[in-house]
Amino acid sequence: MATLxxxxxxxxxxxxxxxxxxxVSGELQCEARMTCQRCLQPVTMTLEGSVRWGLVFSxxxxxxxxxxxxxxxxxxxxxxxxxxxxxxxxxxxPIMPMHDSCDSGWIPDPEPxxxxxxxxxxxxxxxxxxxxxx
Length: 134
Ligand SMILES: [Zn+2]
Hints:
Number of helices: 3
Distance between the termini: 67 Å
Largest sheet: 5 strands, mixed
Number of domains: 1
Order of helices and strands: EEEEHEHH
Bound molecules: zinc ion
Strand content: 25-35%
Number of strands: 5
Radius of gyration: 28 Å
């Protein structure tokens, strides 16, 4: 699970082509608290992304919208900007959040099947053979 931390920034600006849709574009930046998938300690990930939304007022408008734009449906005359930003940030969450370097005492799992030369039963067998042969 991820928690979006307060203090994120969203710089959005609206523009309008007289013959086109209203467009809201901008940059989003927010930090999210997640769990490191390597050491399982909390990790803060910085989410950054840019948005280009086309505001539409009906399903029909949504279908005719420029494919370069992400449609945002205006419901009851309200642009739910906060909701739209949060939805966008959730999409930016990494699937495998990790620290750049885990400094909380993470120890790698030992290599499976790594038997040292000394403990190898074959090495013991070999030394017995040598003793018999001489
Ligand atoms: Zn970690």
